[in-house]
Structure formats: C-alpha cells, structure tokens
Amino acid sequence: MPDLPAPDGKFFPRNLTARADYRVPGNPSGTRAESGVDNCFPGLEFDQRNLDTGFFPGIRVDFHRDEGARVLAFTGEPALAQGLTDADLSDTRPLYVRALCGRTTVDQSEQQVPTVDCAPLSGLDVWRHVHDLLPGTVTVLLAPIATPPPAVPDLNGTRLTGNSFVQRDAQGRVESAVLTAPRARYLDADGVIDPEVYRPGELTRSLCAPWQYDFRDCGCFYWAASKPDVTSSADGSVPEVNFLRADRGTPPAPDLSSDQGGRRTALEFTYPQLIRDWQVLPVVLDDREQEEPVSTPRAMPAAVAAARDLMSPEDVAKELTKLAGVEHALCVEYLYAHYSLNAPQFLPRSADELTRRAHAAGQEVFAVAIDEMRHLRWVNEALAMLGRQPVLDRATVIDREIDHEFGLERLTRDRLQWFVDVEAPSRHVADDPDDPVGLDGMYVKLHMSVVQQLDLFPQGDRLAHLIKLIIDEGGDHYRRFLAVQDHLAGLQENQYLRRLDAQADAAETELLDISDQYYVLLLGTLRASLELFDSAGGALMAQTRLVMTNLQELHHVLAGRGVGPRFTMPVLPDQDGGTPAEMSTAYRQLARDAAATVTATLPAVARRDGRLRPMVLRHMTDVEAVLAALTALDGR
C-alpha cells in the first residue's frame, strides 16, 4: 500500500486480529476483521447479543427468553467471592437480572446514573439496556421471578461504593444478589475476544446457520426469503396453502390469514423438523407446488409433460423472434390504455377521489407497460445468445385462443378484461403445436426446451434464467390488472376515461409529429444499445430511457388535450437486407435523422404555446445528449 497521510476520522486497528495483514485469495474485503461489522440481528459476522451474554464479569446471561434475562452460570469474581455457585441456578428457581445500574450516556455524571427496573422486561429488552452500558462500574441485581415483583432499590449508591452482597432465605436459597464490577471488556490483554470467556461457536450460534433457521424465519413479514410464504396446491384445488406446513397430507389445509397467537407458526415445521426433513418441501413453479421435481423424468406435472416435444435451438430462436414483436405490441397497447385514463401524469395533493382512483389504475397499467419494455430487452438478449440480431418489429396479431388484432384502444371494461385474459397464468403448453396457448405458456415451453437440453444451447443457464424472469413477471401482470379492476370498480366508463379522438389543431399536430419521431429515435437507440450490451450498452440504454421519459411526458400533454398518440410504426431496415454492421449503421442513421427532426421542430412548439417552453428546453437538451451518445459510437 502507498504511504499516504491518514484521512481525518480514519479508524486504525489496535488489536492483533484486526492488525493481521494476511489476505485470503478470493475473500472480499468485508471478511477482514478491520472491515468487519457486528450486528444484533442474524446475517453478518457475529451476533452482538452473544457477546453481551458476558457483559458482567463472572456471570453468563441468556437474553433469548420472554420472561427475562436468565443467569446461566457463575464463572468468576465477584460472584464466586459471594458464595454463588451454579447450584444456585436450579431449573425450579432460576435467577434473572432484575435490575442494573451503569452509565449509558457520556453526559451522565456518576451521581446521576439511574437504576433500570428489569422486572417487567423481556430478555431482549433487558439486552437493549445492557448493550447501552458504557465502560465503567456496573451493578446488577439478581433474583428469582416473584409475583408481584418487589420494589427495586436505587442501586447507584451501591455502585459508587463498589459493594456486593447476597441475601438467602432460611433454606439457603438466594433471595437476591447485588454484584458490582467493571463492565466486561470482552477482550484479553492482546486485544482478541477472550477465549477464556467465549467458547468456539458461541458468537455465531444464532446467525443464519444452519441455513434452515433463516429459511424458516424469513418471510414477507420480516425479511426477503428464498422461499414463498404461500403457494397453491399441486392440483390447484387449494389456492393458498402454507409452504412450510408440517402436515404434508393431501389435500393440504388452507392457509391461515394471520399468525395471531402464533397459530400459523404452530402448524409449520419446527427447526429440528426442517433440518431433518427439508427435502420433502416441493419445488414451486409459478406459485404452484409441483408433485415431483422437474428433473425427474417420470410422473412429471402437466406443464412438464410436453417436454417430450422439445424445441430445437433454431425453433427457440424463431419463437423468440415472434415473441419480441408480441412484447412490443403489448407495450404500446398498454401505454395507449394508460393515457386514456382521466388522470394527470403526476397526482396533485388536491386531487379528488375519482382522480385518485383513475391515477392509481393508470399507474398499474403503466408499470406493466414498463415490464413489457423490459421483456422486449430480455427477449433480444436471449436472441443474442442464440446468435441472432436484435428484433424490434411490432406484431400485428397477438395469438391467443382467438387471434387479437393489434390496435390502440381506450381502457374500456372489455379492453381491460382482455388484458386480464392475455396475462392470465396458463401454466401449460399445448400438446398440439397448432393449439394456441397463452403468452406465458409459450414461454414455459421455451424454458423447458432450454433447461432439458442445456448442452444444445450456448449460455444455457443464463438463457433459461432470462426466460424464467419473463414467466414470473407474467403472473405479476395478471395481479396488476386485477388491481386495476378493483380501482375502477363501481365507476362508469365515462367517469374514468377521457376521449382521445379530438381533432388535432396545428400545435397538436406538431406534437404528434414529434411523438412519431421520438418513437423512431427510441427504436434506433434501443437497437444500438442491444447490439452493445455490456460493452457500452448500459450508457446508451440510459439515453434510451431518457427518450422514453420525454415520450411519456409528451403523450400526457396530448392526452390531456383529448388527442391520442399515433404510435406510427416506422419502416425499419430489412433484417435480411444486409450484414450486421450494415444493419447497425442503418439503425443509427435512422435515429440521427429522427433526432434532427425533433430538434428542428421543438422550437416551433414553444413559440405556439409558451406554457410548453420549459418542456421544450428540457427535451432539446436531452435529444442533444442522445445525439452525442450516438456520435460517440461511430468511433467504436
């Protein structure tokens, strides 16, 4: 390391462990003691609560108890000097920390230190007070639980005199013990956590090890987990079952709606059961438990049975090419439906209830449209793995049970129901290749074709992961459109919809022309970013998002005036009309031409309508940034 001056506030390691300069190859810097972080919750290097079990010299305390902080052992002075032994800690009459006294803030004088009454506290609440204790003299009162608890004396006088004493009843049992000593340092003379106090494994015993502990405890109510809290049964007959239920009988019992009184938790695997029997938990695909692991060739679920007709890499590429157009088409349909809702882009605080409901519905639809944009990107990433060029065509027909012609329509009840249907989780693939299936069903077939033939696909693991992401988000889209129905329930269409068929005046016609050029610019920059991917695509993708943001703002201006965006699909370069380099050049030129048209037209918009001047100025700056990014690619 270079010999640089120490920055202000730099912490220097002073103990042997932190000074160790050996770096283990492959270990991140966070594993070194000088970078380590201790925490009072599971997941990091060690659990501070376990360190604090020895906060007072000569005693060990268990804080993980509802009834209080229980004394586990007497290990040294001053307890032993007062005649206390482990024989005083019987299970029939255990001792607890009933009060403690010590400085907790630097502004406390020695005469002002309060006594903390621990009688009404749980063990972890006692620990919170223990954790706050500063170095210095501490006094603790140990006593059995009594009902009602006796009054706690002021311990600060005893603390200042340094006295310790024990009171016993006629049978020799401890009634109370007051012990005074300096707060434990936790470290030995060499600055290492004292091995005479803490045995190997004690500091990490409550962390996420074994993995079943964290697997069981984490969930939607606490911490993101690698398991579902609620699934549906394998046959779909029970829509909500507890994934960790101990009773694995058929049919499973419906899940409880709450854990009040611990009723739900009581039905789950205990820690020992989960450590022993974790392998009985089923694989969950698309929120449904599977009867057999998908890797088992016999007795596969229906969604896996069609794997007997797996697709070749060539067929997968053809299907992904088709699906890219579908994702593009759905994105545009969802955006148009979003603009048809009678709500502003940003909700003012003064909005009435009707506007709030329409805005909430619009935000759900817009979120799905954003996901479809991301799906278009993921499909193109998958195509790149298969050696194909990016595809930005827009489907004119969306295959479902009944073919759906692409079109720009307002979010009527019928249109909303079709959106619900198109995103509904079918979770199956057709046995007959001519039998149309749902959009997600097609992705399921693609996914199985990849995972069952990984050796045939370049980057097969990554390809399968991308396709699975699209499948998973499809279920979320379905739930979002159901939420839209809830937001609009009880309203008439004329209450929440705006008309988008007004005759455009000259200013609005200019905005529509700019909108179409933005659409071309968007497709051109998106194509360029998809070609580059990790090399420079990230920077260009940021410019692509900038175009999307401006297009969104422009469309809300038009929709607010009753004019719907046209989304005119430009004539794109022919995919088969040239080499990849020639295609790349053609798309970039298409984007440059569109950007030039936008910058030439925007000033006229500001002159016609001064209210739009701030928007025009922002857009001019953004388009210039996009042009600069495209120009920078010319040297690549």
Major sheet strand order: 4-3-5-7-6
Class based on secondary structure composition and strand pairing: alpha+beta
- The residue ranges in which pLDDT falls below 50 over 5 or more consecutive positions are 36-40, 293-307, 426-437
Shape: elongated
Instruction: Report the average pLDDT across residues.
Output: 83
Proportion of helical residues: 40-55%
Beta-strand percentage range: 5-15%
Radius of gyration: 34 Å
Main sheet attributes: strand count, strand direction, barrel closure: 5 strands, antiparallel
User: Number of DSSP helices?
Assistant: 18
Q: Could you give the count of β-strands? A: 13
Q: Could you give the distance between the termini?
A: 36 Å
Task: Give a nutshell description of this structure.
By secondary structure, the protein is an alpha+beta fold. The protein is 41% helix and 8% strand. It has helices at residues 16-19, 48-51, 123-131, 156-161, 211-217, 263-266, 271-277, 302-305, 313-339, 353-385, 413-423, 439-451, 460-488, 493-496, 506-532, 537-560, 580-608, 613-633, and strands spanning 59-62, 70-74, 96-101, 115-117, 137-143, 165-168, 174-182, 230-231, 241-242, 284-285, 288-289, 397-398, 404-405.
Structure description:
This protein is an alpha+beta fold. 41% of the residues lie in helices and 8% in strands. It is built from 18 helices and 13 strands. It has helices at residues 16-19, 48-51, 123-131, 156-161, 211-217, 263-266, 271-277, 302-305, 313-339, 353-385, 413-423, 439-451, 460-488, 493-496, 506-532, 537-560, 580-608, 613-633; strands spanning 59-62, 70-74, 96-101, 115-117, 137-143, 165-168, 174-182, 230-231, 241-242, 284-285, 288-289, 397-398, 404-405. The strands form five sheets. A five-stranded antiparallel β-sheet has the order 4-3-5-7-6. The chain has a two-stranded antiparallel ribbon with strand order 1-2. A hairpin with a 2-residue loop joins strand 10 and strand 11. Helix 9 packs antiparallel against helix 12 (439-451), helix 11 runs antiparallel to helix 13 and helix 12 (439-451) packs antiparallel against helix 13. The two termini are 36 Å apart. Mean pLDDT is 83; it is low at 36-40, 293-307 and 426-437.
